[in-house]
Amino acid sequence: MKLIIGAKLLIVSTDWSQFVCLTRRRVDHLSWKEKFDIPGGKAKEGEEPLDALKRELIEEINFKLTDDPELVDASSIINNDEIQVVRLTYLIEYDLRFLDVELGSEHGAIALRPFCEDAGFHPVLNRAIRHALSRRRRYNLELKAPRG
Predict the structure, then answer these.
(1) What is the average pLDDT score of the chain?
(2) What does the alpha-carbon distance between residue 10 and residue 47 come to, in Å, rounded to a whole number?
(3) Model's pTM, two decimal places?
(4) Of the chain's two ends, which shows fewer C-beta atoms within 10 Å, N or C?
(5) Consecutive H or E run containing 52
(6) CATH fold of 2-144, please?
């Protein structure tokens, strides 16, 4: 069985209201019904997932990842006798007022979208968003809990 690992990044505003999406443009992705994606891509053979993510961010949006992102989801997109595709979704908080990116050739545009699930997103992206929001809610509840 061939294993393919992909690494994607949710770039979320510091108030968690928005995140960075890319619109699809590549011809080989026409079979995908989802209009939006997040930056990232496949690891090359022997490449560590975080190194692949850093490379893909430079290629796709000319964004240099300086801090270690938080892993929020790991999902099998395809899993059969011939191939397994695993997608790792990471997250960073970023002040989007200072986001300065240049779009590569793979995507049509950059869009800021509300940070919530959407029927127009791939189910794996919605799952990552759901996990991230759930973690944030738990963290906020822990901060508010009385200490004793």
Answers:
(1) 89
(2) 21
(3) 0.88
(4) C
(5) helix 49-61
(6) Nucleoside Triphosphate Pyrophosphohydrolase (3.90.79)
